[in-house]
Amino acid sequence: MNIWRYIAKRLLSAIIVIVGVTAIIFIISRLSGDPVDLMLGLEATPESRAALRHALGLDQPLHIQYFIFLSNALRGDFGVSIRNSVPAMELVLERLPNTLILTVVTVLLAVAIAIPIGIVSALKHNSVIDYAGMTFTFVGQSIPSFWLGILLILFLGVQLRVLPISGIGTPAHLIMPAITLSSFLLASLARLTRSSMLETLNRDYVRTARAKGLKYSTVVIRHALRTALIPVVTVLGLQVAALMGGAVITEQIFAYPGVGWLAITAIYARDFPVVQAVVFVVSVIVVLANLVVDVVYTYLDPRIGYG
Amino acid sequence: MSSSESRKPDRRSFLKIVGGTLAGLVVGSAAGYYLRSPEIREVIRTVTQTEAARTVTQTVTAPATTVTQTITAPSTVMQTTTVTQTATVTITQTATPVARPRLTVAQGVDPTTMDPDMQSETPTFVVLFHVYDSFLEVDREGKLVPKLATSWTYQDPRTLDLELRRGVKFSNGEEFNAEVAAFNIRRMTTPPLIPNAKPTVLARDYLTVQDVEVLDSYRIRIKMKQSDPLLLRILRNKLVIPKKYVEENGFDILATKPVGTGPYTLKEWIKGDHLTLVKKADYWGGPAAIDEVVFRPIPETATRVAELRVGNVDIITNVPPDQAGVLDAEPNIDIRTVPSVRVAFVMMNTETNEKLRDPRIRQALNYAVDVNSIIQHIFQGYAKRISTLCPSFFAPYDPNTRFYEYNPAKAKQLLADAGYKDGFEIDMEVARGRWLGAEAAAEAIAGMLNAVGIKTTLYTPEFGVWAKGTQEHKIRSLAYAAWGNNTFNVLQSINALLHSNRPFSWYSNAKLDALIDQAFDTPDLEKHNAILRQALDLIFEEAPYIFLYQHVDIYGVNSKVVWQPRPDELILGYEAR
To answer: Given an 8 Å threshold on Cβ–Cβ distance, is A41 in contact with B118?
Structure first.
């Protein structure tokens, strides 16, 4: 089986995963509350509840509602947001670019800092540099993101007034959210790179390469790093997926209009169409990210094949 | 294997493709991100042009620093805005004081929709009251005053006539008249009297309306199924939508493209980031002093406070009581407060818990709770004690004359009298994430009940889950809740909360029912209030709830802004300077 057939097969199973995820979300979200209760407030009479529920199609049996949802979704129609009275997918797609751009910047920032730290720490194993690097990443891993976010706002936004505090509009608006989001990712990537690199540097082929008289930097970058990056790529792929839907706290701190903030608002309001549209989009991205990771493996390590 | 290897693109070209695609995506999305809509480009252009125009005048008067800043201002929206503000300061200093060109308000959430009848959230109302006008208005004393309706008369308790304002136009030029007014009322009935119209969210408030008649071009008659003195109060929340515009484009267009008679029109709405309103020069009540009102949703309190401190926003809502003091001490920031229409209490479920049917036990619970201490320690004084369920300013009377003082000994005595010398066990709940200080207050109350021997177990369901339970008429024996009443008439609260057989009532008292029914049948204000007073006295004696306090809304305000908070939680740019 060649790589393209492998990808096709994976995409096929992805569809099953996505349908399954939406079904679960569909049922769970409807079990835990009712948007009509939340929209009409506590004092509304059963009469007005029934009228609105009927207008929204929420009075149908659950399985009928699901089939209506599924057949509409196949045609790309995810329904109209109950709270906002506009198409749910439109709300998600409006915010998706914001989330994508924040994710890309976060990942670039994390990778650009983490991998050099990891390599240097591995090369200078047990030196002061190594300890400093690992202390730095330890702190990064243990700081809660909401605390770091507010600290950044107070320091860079209020004290020094060098960065905008919240919202979107300029590249500067991305800096604090990206630092906040990348702190954990950066730390875990750096630690992973370090340990993976240490292991690789002790391999026979690295010693052979050096014995052949290759430059040390060539050995490290061309021979050792490529192997060492395999676990790093795995973690990165999973984290990118998590960032897409999981930046809820950071987005709220910086009032950054992304998908995570939209999702949490929709969940609290039981705005089912929006919840479903978000879950659909995020699960597509997660599935694709995983697929990309698996394919990238084959190029990082030619021994891995999908035959 | 080798055959499939050969069909595989080689490693280097694969990496090139991936790298290229990624780079393309980044560049493409970045470009799209900044130039997403023609509106943003328009804003950039206008702001930059305005700036250029200002620079000319400023070079004469402004200090050198300002000029430099103006010249180096980047062409992006946010930073240009900052510069605009700098420019304004300079102008204010050198010339006679002018109204601020822009007022920026940060609320916790974005408005949900621009269709005023399809929502019921305060932050959305706040925005919509700029774009639309209501039939009536309630002044700061809680009295009804004219707006699009200039006068109102009850022909009989079930017939209400409204005289409408003349010469009012919607922002699209459409005229406001009796046909439009009637169309608005017809949309609100259940089912709507407009063919193919969906039931609205706010229809819940108009259940007594039967029909509406156009008497002449500027008079309508509302006919009710039963007497409803609250309807006039409801009409202060009825924001008037245009008829022709909706008939031509459908109701759905209102969600994003509102057309109203209000003092402002919608300029742009970048969902989740900001919404900008511009003033209407020909508003019937005279143009607003402030040119632009910007609303920004900032969910995190610490962030809202930070934006206020650096001067990017002028008014923030929901300042936590524990930060009010610190903020007020800052030279450029005022803390401004107003008692709110929201009242907190602990409901007692007399339906499922037999013990709570004994008034002595209900009174004991009231004596057991140290309300003043909760106000002092949890709300830092930013809450106001009330006797029953009536906020202090509900016009035209304040029945908050006596309280159940904190007296644990008396509570224990009453429990013993009722046959529970050793107390009993009870469950209590409070919905999470809905009302200011609710979880902490409920915990304190549970502790105080424990202290007199009532072993209280506290549950904290998420609000949506709790609301669903209440719709199935399920609450635990005790439930902490807070009730907002925008009709400024306590009849709305006591009818919903304490009249037998109401969906949200777990209490029953024939005498109280009779008083509430009588109040509904008596539109005459003086008699109406006398009956309500009797009802509240009865409620105090019967103690169907643990009575607590009314909330106080806390705003952080740029001290240069002339604006006073309103009890109905509206922030109106029209009232600010």
So the answer is: no
Dihedral-angle region of residue A173 (phi above 0 means left; psi in -120 to 50 means alpha; beta otherwise): alpha
Average pLDDT, chain B: 85
Model pLDDT for residues B61-100, shown as the tens digit of each residue: 333 333 333 333 333 333 333 333 333 333 333 334 456 7
What is the rounded CA–CA span in Å between residue B214 and residue B219?
6
Chain B residue closest in CA terms to A301: B11
> What tens digit of pLDDT does each residue of B455-500 get?
999 999 988 889 888 888 999 999 999 998 888 899 999 999 999 9
CB of B191 within 8 Å of a chain A CB? The answer is yes
Instruction: Evaluate the CA torsion angle B37, B41, B44, B49 in order and state its sign.
Output: negative
How many helices (H) and strands (E) chain B has is answered by 19, 17
- At residue B289's C-alpha, the angle toward residues B288 and B293, to 5°, is 75
Instruction: Determine whether the interchain pair A150/B26 forms a contact, defined as Cβ–Cβ distance below 8 Å.
Output: no
Are B476 and B459 in contact by the 8 Å Cβ rule? The answer is yes
Note the Cα B413 to chain centre separation in Å.
42
Closest CA to B51 of B102, B25, B88, B21: B88
Q: Summarize pLDDT for A121-139 with one digit per residue, the tens.
A: 999 999 999 999 999 999 9
Facing residue for A101 by CB, picked from B11, B14, B30: B30
Distance, in angstroms, between B441 CA and closest chain A CA?
Answer: 21
Q: What is the pLDDT of residue B491?
A: 94
Give which of B478, B462, B468 is closest to B345, Cα–Cα. B478
CA pseudo-torsion sign B388, B391, B392, B398: negative
Residues in Cβ contact with A247 at an 8 Å cutoff, skipping those fewer than 6 apart: A99, A102, A103, A177, A181, A256, A258, A259, A260
Give the residue from chain A lying closest to B202, CA to CA. A40
Asked if the model's pLDDT at residue A147 lies above 60, the reply is yes
> What's the length of chain A?
307
Q: For residue B351, what are the CA distances in angstroms to B355, B457, B528? A: 10, 19, 30
- Altogether, the residues listed in chain B come to a count of 577
Which of A301, A121, A300, A110 has its CA nearest to residue A198? A121
Chain B residues whose beta carbon lies within 8 Å of the beta carbon of residue A167? 78, 273-274, 296
What is the SS3 assignment for A229? helix
Alpha-carbon distance A108 to nearest alpha carbon in chain B (angstroms): 11
Chain A contact set for B36 (CB, 8 A): 97
Query: What does the DSSP 8-state code read for residue B176?
Result: P
- pLDDT for B1 equals 39
- Name the residue type at position A186: L
Closest-CA distance of chain A to residue B137, Å? 22
> In the predicted model, is pLDDT for residue B52 greater than 50?
no
Q: How confident is the model at residue B41 (pLDDT cuts 50, 70, 90)?
A: very low
| Min distance A64 CA to chain B CA atoms (Å) | 21
Q: In this complex, is the C-beta atom of A47 within 8 Å of any C-beta atom belonging to chain B?
A: yes
Q: CA of A3 to nearest chain B CA: how many angstroms apart? A: 7
Q: Contact A91/A274 with Cβ under 8 angstroms?
A: yes
Angle at CA of residue B467, ends B461 and B473, nearest 5°: 110
Query: What's the pLDDT tens digit per position in A77-99?
Result: 999 998 888 999 999 999 999 99
What are the strands of the beta sheet with B159-164, ordered from one edge? Answer: B149-156, B159-164, B219-224, B209-216
Q: Can you name the residues that pair with B550 across neighbouring β-strands?
A: B343, B384
Q: What was the ipTM of the complex prediction?
A: 0.88
Q: Note whether A52 contacts B: Cβ–Cβ < 8 A.
A: yes
The answer to whether A76 contacts chain B (CB < 8 Å) is no
pLDDT tens digit string along B272-313? Answer: 999 999 999 999 999 999 999 999 999 999 999 999 999 999
Q: What is the Cα–Cα distance from B253 to B4, expressed in whole angstroms?
A: 55
